[in-house]
Amino acid sequence: MSKRLIRIALILLLLPPILAALAGWLVAPAYLHPIRRELTPDLIREADTFFSVTHADPEEFDVRAPDGVLLRGWKVTPRHPNGSWVLLFHGVADNRVGVIGQSEFLLRAGYSVLMMDVRAHGASEGRMATYGWLERNDSRAVIDALFHDAQQRCLSIPYHGGNPCPPPRHIFALGESMGAGIALQSAAADPRMEAVVAEASFANLREAAYDYAGLRKSPWLGKTLLRPFAWTLLYRGEKITGFPLAEISPVKAAASRAFPVLLICDEKDEALPCRHTRMIYAAARGPKQLWVVPGAYHTAALGFYPEEFQRRVLAFFGTYRGEP
Questions:
Q1: Rounded to an integer, what distance in angstroms lies between the CA atom of residue 117 and that of residue 97?
Q2: Which residues are registered as beta bridge partners of 166?
Q3: Which CATH number do you get for residue 162?
Q4: What pairs with residue 63 in β-bridges?
Q5: Is residue 149 part of a domain?
Q6: pLDDT digits over 195-215, tens only?
Q7: Number of structural domains in the chain
Q8: Which pLDDT belongs to residue 79?
Q9: H/E/C letters for each residue in 58-107?
Q10: 159: pLDDT strictly greater than 60
């Protein structure tokens, strides 16, 4: 009888990690191939309405990534541009319209915005999402294209009428969730990106996997009994991509270059709890601010506290534009 109880106990002890390992193996492809939210005519009309309210001028803006992937987006300028640009990065399984709310108040404040569909999202090409590994190079290509476009327009007298035609004065970034992680890694790789606002970023893919393994309720469970989920997820992911997924890390990015960051975490975020943002904050070497948003859920800071969100973001970017 005692041996039988021991066998049952062993089965109960070993079954959860075995099932977790199997789940991680099965989930890995979906992790790299998120559901694509198409850029539908209805979404385009919604965006056009936002732009008309702010009297902004959107243009199609297509960029070739270093590996040949075509990235599609919008380059949007306000009626009275202040010379600074903000790259907006949406979350996973979303598209550029997902950051339309952020674009509205930035445009009103005179910032021009670049709203790109991240690779493997929206209208952009790409076989898989790499959460910053390839996307940081995509961001560099987008900034290159922005400066090239400005240069070509300056050569066109009909465009500027003989008036001064300066290049973009400042380049900033604002991202949420996956987009926040991409923004941080992009800024680490390209010093032209001067400051970053990052809401609800993941610390690294391993930490994010612990949360998924713990069913977004207990990272402790994901780090202990169900830890094999993260092991097999990352292992198979690396076999599929050929990239070291464990090295995809906004924490390391924030520590690698001293650039200013405004880090936002939502108090009731269960998808990427505040510990992720706190890890990035602890590692960041540049000027840093942390805003814990009371009562807010994942990427909901703007919806919960629109005036405070706008005030903090505009003050942050204004500091690095040299505003008094």
A1: 9
A2: none
A3: 3.40.50.1820
A4: 71
A5: yes
A6: 999 999 999 999 999 888 765
A7: 1
A8: 92
A9: EEEEEEECCCCCEEEEEEEECCCCCCEEEEEECCCCCCHHHHHHHHHHHH
A10: no
First to last CA, the chain: 79
Give me the pLDDT at residue 264, please. Answer: 99
Q: What are the pLDDT digits (tens) for 277-309?
A: 999 999 999 999 999 999 999 999 999 999 999
Host H or E run for residue 237:
helix 228-241
* Matching residue, tokens 């992937």: 69
Scored b (16 or more CB within 10 A) or e, 153-163 reads eeeeeeeeeee
Residue 187 in domain: yes
Residue 153 lies in a domain: yes
Is a pLDDT exceeding 60 seen at residue 141? Answer: yes
Q: CB of 289 within 8 A of CB of 316?
A: yes
- Eight-state DSSP code of residue 247: G
Tell me the β-bridge partners of 199: 176, 264
d(CA 104, CA 289): 23
Q: What 3-state DSSP class applies to 293?
A: strand
**What is the structure's pLDDT at 17?**
72
- Would residue 85 count as lying in a domain? yes
Of 59, 95, 90, 60, the C-alpha closest to 77 is: 59
What single string gives the DSSP state of each residue in 117-154?
Answer: PPTTSTT---S---TTTTHHHHHHHHHHHHHHHHHHHH
Distance from C-alpha of 289 to C-alpha of 112, rounded to nearest angstrom: 23
Whether residue 81 is predicted with pLDDT greater than 90 in this model: the reply is yes
**Domain span at 261:** 37-204+248-321
Q: Write the single-letter amino acid at 78.
A: P
pLDDT one-digit tens code per residue, 244-260: 998 999 999 999 999 99
